[in-house]
């Protein structure tokens, strides 16, 4: 699988874990483009990278559907069966910016699960595929309309002395809204092996964990799956919870991501020589089909805020981030703290301090991102 990393990924990717392979782009490249090039999109894996031959692949649709079927890639690409959909969409790992929680208090999270992600565990690409809703209709529709749809990946991983396939589930209501796609193209090119070839799920506006790669089976259930990735990982615990007392049923299964943002430039601890304004750039994102409506920056640690003019934000799309740039006025000389916050279209915004977002699983670091720089004016 290391050969696949070298073949498909940019040489400057930061390799956070060699096996299972996890990597993110360096800060200067995270928001260099509004659409992330395939070789710079972050990668999150729980196990190996399976190599699947396209013409041997099929998708099993089973469980509580009226007519279980096996579909080939040619079936999915047959436009008289399924309308083709192309959509720009952001995938964000719930571990994005986890380093800030680790720096505050590492907790007792499992090292393998808790890759030390910075601000690059997010990427935006244009995906092409079909709606899972249309595929399920093609299989006669659901017997029971109130369930979850389970998604299985061909990769296996090892957990509590058991080898299992990667599996999660999403509510039928999400599928019904045409917000779950089965994709074979990323940015106009065949889906890279490392991103799930030949077909992956794309669950728009949910944590990356639900967008199952190397998809080979979807199964209709009357409840969320009991698979460990769904029921034991990706849980948002309250602050009284640690390893000694964690009870998975008390954790919230993370689905939609809240609003968040990050500064990609300047870098923390950088010395900046400027003439009254510091050039800043970064991203803002909100899950669940909400979008960044306003980005604000502070040069004084979060007491006063400048709104980034809307023309400095990239275009607005449901389910996609907005990149931004701004010359932040600053007359002070010495150490200052630059802070960003995002407001989404529902006027949700971010907690000011990472300590109020800290949780034992080290997920969803949605607090305001801060960098300290030395200002020379
Ligand atoms: N799908 C499979 N089959 N195996 C995995 O380990 N990781 C998930 C998701 N889909 C994973 C998977 C997680 S946690 C994330 S954040 C996204 O894939 C990352 O997608 P990417 O690697 O294409 O960026
Ligand atoms: Mo993730």
From TrEMBL:
Listed cofactors: Mo-molybdopterin
Tell me if Oxidoreductase is a UniProt keyword of this record: yes
Which GO terms of type biological process are on file? sulfur compound metabolic process
Keywords tagged on the record: Metal-binding, Molybdenum, Oxidoreductase
Please list the residue ranges annotated as the Oxidoreductase molybdopterin-binding domain: 46-226
Task: Describe the location of the Moybdenum cofactor oxidoreductase dimerisation domain by residue ranges.
Answer: 253-374
What start-end ranges are recorded for coiled-coil regions in this protein? none
What's this protein's name? Answer: Sulfite oxidase
Q: Which organism is it from?
A: Aulographum hederae CBS 113979
């Amino acid at each position: 699988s290391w050969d696949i990393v070298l073949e498909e990924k940019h040489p400057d990717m930061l390799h956070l874990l060699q096996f299972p392979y996890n990597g993110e782009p360096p800060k200067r490249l995270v928001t260099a483009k509004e659409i992330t090039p395939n070789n710079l999109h972050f990668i999150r894996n729980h196990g190996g990278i399976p190599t699947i031959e396209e013409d041997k692949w099929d998708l099993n649709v089973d469980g509580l559907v009226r007519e279980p079927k096996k579909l080939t890639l040619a079936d999915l690409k047959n436009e008289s069966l399924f309308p083709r959909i192309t959509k720009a969409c952001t995938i964000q790992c719930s571990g994005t910016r986890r380093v800030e929680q680790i720096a505050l208090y590492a907790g007792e999270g499992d090292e393998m699960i808790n890759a030390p992600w910075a601000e690059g565990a997010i990427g935006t690409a244009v995906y092409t595929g079909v709606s899972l809703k249309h595929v399920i209709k093609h299989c006669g529709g659901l017997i029971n309309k109130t369930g979850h749809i389970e998604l299985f990946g061909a990769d296996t991983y090892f957990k509590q002395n058991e080898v299992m396939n990667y599996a999660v589930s999403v509510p039928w209501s999400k599928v019904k809204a045409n917000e779950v796609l089965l994709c074979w193209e990323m940015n106009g090119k065949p889906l890279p092996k490392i991103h799930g070839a030949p077909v992956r799920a794309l669950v728009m506006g949910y944590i990356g964990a639900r967008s199952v790669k190397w998809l080979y089976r979807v199964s209709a259930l009357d409840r969320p799956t009991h698979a460990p990735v769904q029921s034991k990982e990706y849980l948002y615990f309250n602050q009284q919870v640690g390893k000694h007392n964690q009870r998975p049923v008390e954790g919230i299964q993370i689905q939609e991501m809240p609003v968040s943002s990050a500064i990609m430039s300047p870098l923390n601890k950088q010395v900046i020589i400027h003439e009254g304004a510091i050039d800043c750039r970064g991203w803002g994102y909100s899950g669940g089909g909400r979008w960044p409506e306003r980005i604000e920056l502070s040069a004084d640690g979060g007491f006063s805020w400048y709104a980034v003019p809307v023309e400095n934000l990239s275009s607005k799309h449901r389910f996609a981030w907005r990149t931004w740039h701004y010359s932040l006025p600053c007359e002070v000389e010495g150490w200052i703290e630059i802070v960003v916050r995002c407001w989404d279209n529902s006027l949700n915004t971010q907690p000011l301090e990472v300590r109020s977002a800290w949780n034992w699983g080290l997920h969803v670091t949605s607090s305001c991102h801060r960098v300290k720089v030395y200002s020379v004016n």
